[in-house]
Each structure stands twice: as C-alpha cells, then as structure tokens.
C-alpha cells in the first residue's frame, strides 16, 4: 500500500518540474515568434527601399531592430533556460572553486573534435576584447549560432558528458533526457524556423548599439506577438 502512495507522488513531482520547464520553453517560443514577425515586416521594407535580396533583412547593420530583438528577447530566454539548475561552482584541484556560467558551459561543450564549427565560434567570441562579461560573451555566441548552428549546439549539449558536471538533477537539461524529453523536442521545433532564415548579426552588436547592461532600463516581459511590434531604440 505504501508503494501505491509513493509512485503517484513521484509522478506528480516530475510533472510539476516539467510544468516549470515548460514556462522556460514558452518564453523562447514567444521570442522566436516576435523575431519571425519582425523579420517578415523588415524584409518587406528592405526589399521595397533597396530592391535587394531578402538576406539583407537579417543583417544587423541594415536592420538593427532585429539585432535588438534577438539580444533583448531571445538571448535572455535561452539564458534562463540553460542556466536553470546550473550548479553555482565547479571544483578544480588547481584553481579551487570556479563559478559556473552559461559561457563556461559553452566552453566546456565545444571542445569535442566533432564540434569544429562551434569551437571556432567560441574561440572567436572569446578573443573579442570588448566582451569582458561572461553573459555578453554568451549573447555573442548565440548571435553567431543563428547562422544555422543553434539547434545543432543544443542537441550536442544534450548529449554531452558535461551535463552531470554542470547541472543539478532537477535542471531542464538533465530532465530533458528523461521526464522532460518531449519538452526538449518541442524546444528544437520552436527554434527550427530560425534555421530557415539568413542571419548576419554583428557579434559586437551589444557593444556597438546598446547601453551597458547596468544603465539600460529594464525591459518588460514580452506579451507581444503583434506584427507591428517594435522595440524602442
């Protein structure tokens, strides 16, 4: 009889965890839909005004609004999802305890030989002198991944041995292997439309176009899927 009581409770616990993770995936979905809407509207404007191919609407030099939208909506949503359940520190015999971050996760997950393109991007971002904060480097890495590498990196990360080292068992990424695997598949489906678009985003876009994070006004949570949505400069 005791066993009959314990199993439903365990099931409810996992369901509750997955419900929280679903909110994180939902935030990514909202950001992607806003990017698609903005991409579509700006593409029309670019084509009418410049009479050039549609790839320019994904160029942050010509369409800075798209760059702002990616940085202010998609990057924070993915950062929240990937730092969910992230352990605060890593223990090292030489350096002692080292703080974890989304950027340290990027570095750890792009060392394998089969991740040559990811490794090159990570090195390129790490060598940018203007990006001193780990969060800014993580954002720049995501901008680079939008050249059709984002879903590849996430799939690679899920299969990577660093998960147990970096994440608690109740994190989204650890649960994506078991109870929340359907949510991870949903995440990849949500991101898939972005791989059909052509992005050319400046890795230093945040440095060139946005105020320092500590001085920038807080941006409200985006309840926007309106096709006329635009972020203020």
TrEMBL record:
PROSITE patterns: RUN. Residues 213-233 are annotated as: Disordered. GO terms for cellular component: cytoplasmic vesicle. Pfam families: RUN (PF02759). Residues 65-206 form the RUN domain. InterPro entries: Run_dom, Run_dom_sf, RUSC1_2. It comes from the Eukaryota. This is RUN and SH3 domain containing 1. The lineage of its organism: Eukaryota, Metazoa, Chordata, Craniata, Vertebrata.
């Amino acid at each position: 009889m005791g066993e009959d009581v314990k199993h439903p409770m365990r099931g409810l616990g996992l369901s509750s965890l997955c419900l929280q993770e679903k909110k994180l995936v939902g935030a990514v979905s909202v950001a992607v839909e806003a990017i698609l809407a903005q991409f579509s509207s700006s593409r029309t404007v670019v084509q009418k005004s410049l009479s050039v191919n549609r790839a320019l609407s994904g160029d942050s030099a010509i369409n800075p609004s798209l760059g702002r939208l990616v940085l202010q909506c998609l990057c924070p949503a993915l950062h929240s999802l990937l730092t969910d359940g992230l352990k605060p520190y890593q223990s090292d015999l030489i350096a002692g305890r080292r703080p974890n971050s989304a950027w340290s996760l990027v570095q750890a997950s792009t060392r394998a030989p089969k991740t040559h393109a990811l490794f090159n991007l990570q090195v390129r971002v790490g060598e940018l002198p203007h990006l001193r904060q780990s969060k800014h480097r993580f954002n720049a890495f995501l901008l680079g991944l939008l050249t059709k590498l984002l879903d590849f990196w996430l799939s690679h990360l899920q299969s990577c041995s660093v998960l147990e080292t970096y994440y608690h068992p109740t994190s989204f990424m650890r649960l994506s292997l078991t109870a929340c695997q359907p949510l991870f598949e949903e995440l990849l489906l949500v991101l898939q439309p972005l791989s059909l678009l052509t992005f050319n985003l400046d890795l230093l876009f945040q440095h060139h176009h946005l105020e320092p994070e500590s001085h920038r006004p807080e941006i409200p949570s985006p309840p926007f899927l309106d096709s006329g949505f635009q972020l203020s400069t």
